[in-house]
Here is the input.
Amino acid sequence: MLPRREVFPHVIEMNYQARQRLGCSVYLVHDANEWMLIDIGFEDTAEEIIDIIRQMDFSLAGCKYLVATHADVDHIQGLKRAKELLPQAVTVGHPECQRLLAEGDRIVTYAEISAQKISINLPPITIEQTINEGDVLKIGTLTVDVWNTPGHTPSQLAFQMGKLLFSGDNIYRDGCVGNIDAHHGSDLPAFVASLERIRDADVEWLLPSHGPIFRKNRDQLQKTIDRLTEYQHMADFGTCAVDWPLLEQWEDELVKGFDPDQA
Ligand SMILES: [Zn+2]
Here is the structure.
């Protein structure tokens, strides 16, 4: 039997548990004889992860939910395999995540990034039950509140359990955020609102979907919010900008004519 290396009471993170990087963060939340997994990662590690869970003396029949934080392939590719190994577990995710996976959308899920010659398998995945803002997942006596935190993508979910927030791809320990990309449904004003919500929430720890766990830091969140607020008016993420920078100045100059002394 493997010792359970809990990062917090009732919470095991499978990369920390394995003491090596397996992929995205995979959180096991357990109480009494029930447990759930928040994300599963890529298909080629799904079996290994479930084997470690079995070796930690969890009953595989006790898995209640297989949760998708959003539809990105690095988070959910292993869901089909996980569901085969844990048939009684219910796959849950945001309605938009359910739709993308039902349609096998290879672009929005990042299975296909043709400009980078990335083309990876997206198995058929059924989200059996949709969850959204305000829903509550119960594991034993624990209650986990479902948040919808759009920005990285509309289907991004986060999960609050007391002082812990399973924060998805909203923010990482270095203050960076999940990829901003119009083809992914990223939305800068929504992202800012989601980060403000996290900043103001009564949570102490952020358990992100990539990289190390970290303590919530208001100043760091504010810096990130300020940066994304600026992006809204910058060409850097032009397809997500809310207005086009330099437009007024340019129009003004077009009327007046170009003057090298003023430029
Ligand atoms: Zn991600």
The pocket of zinc ion is lined by residues 24, 72, 74-75, 169, 178, 209-210 (CB under 6 Å).
